[in-house]
Description:
Layout: H1 2-39, E1 41-46, E2 54-56, E3 59-62, H2 64-76, E4 79-84, H3 88-96, E5 102-108, H4 111-114, E6 117-119, E7 124-133, H5 139-143, H6 149-173, H7 185-201, H8 213-244, E8 261-265, H9 269-276, E9 280-284, H10 287-295, E10 301-305, H11 306-314, E11 321-323, E12 328-338, H12 345-357, H13 360-368
Parallel strand pairs: 1-4, 1-5, 8-9, 8-10
Antiparallel strand pairs: 2-3, 5-12, 6-12, 7-10, 7-11, 7-12
Amino acid sequence: MISSRFLIDKNKIFLFLIFVLTTFNFVHAQENKVDTLKTKILKIGVAGNEPFVFTTDGDVSGGIAIEIWEDIALEENWDYEYQIFDSADKALRKLGRNDLDIVVGPLSITSNRLERMQFSQPFYNSSLAIVSREDDFSLWNAIKPLFSIKLILAVAVFLFILAIVGTLLWLAERNKSPDQFPHDPINGIATGMWLAIVTMSTTGYGDKAPITVSGRIIAGAWMVISIISATSMVAGIASTLTLSSLGTTTITNIEQLSDRKAATVQGSPSENFLRENKVKVSNVASLDDAFDQLKSNDVDAVVYDRPQLLYHLKNETENQLHLAKAEYYKQGYGFAFPKNDNRFIYRVNRALLEHAEKQETVRIIDYYLDKDE
Length: 373
């Protein structure tokens, strides 16, 4: 009996020792993990443009995203080194291969990207916006829409249709009514076109009229067709004149850019946005190139992320430019982390919340952008 109890107690002691050793190893591992974060030099990818990322001579020199990250790293006592990338996609691809610990910059948080990586909570809420010129309004600005390529093509098509109708009327009437429709093709077709125009406009001078059955059928069909086409044409011209007579050359919404030309940075979300709204896209390598095209009248507007446009306008002194209040494709900017690496994301999110609660985030943003915006 004594031997059996001894064996039971011995097993309990053995299990207790295993539990103690397992707990000790777990705690020790967690302590080592924390110590590793404090002693490891983190590889930080940097991607983006002003005002979120500034680089000078190949080194990171500041910006909204950089200042927020450096405040967090200082508070967490993290050592790090920067790797600069000329595009967010290149940085995120390297992050996906676990060659980076974090990517810092104005990174749009999208559903597609969340399938391949993790994001912090947004430190800035962005959107797409439109910048256009504030030109002096003139008579030419009022009538300029009437000389658009589409309107000229529409008039050319209309004249071609008139020529066809005039020819059909001349062929139907030339033998029965040679006094009205001469046998000479040029004069006869011109008379037919005149009759088509009079019929379409419902003027009804009565100087020319078909007398044959086929001529009257052609004229009757043309009356019905012209009522529909003339109504559509007049409505289009009226709307164009109404928009052009508003007394301003600025663009306030994306609808006004339809069939017009806008510049944007190639590969940005604004490129697809413009194509979806039937805007002619001029792709450029940088935002400075886009504004150069706007100032030289090569495009009607620049469409890009609102904070970058705000920063550019803040430093613009030579030209009168207008930033529309309309916002599109609202999205948050955050920091990116490898998909299966949770070492940093909680601590970064907590630090971002504390940073915002202390109004430090607002202070940094106000420094780089217009405070009213």
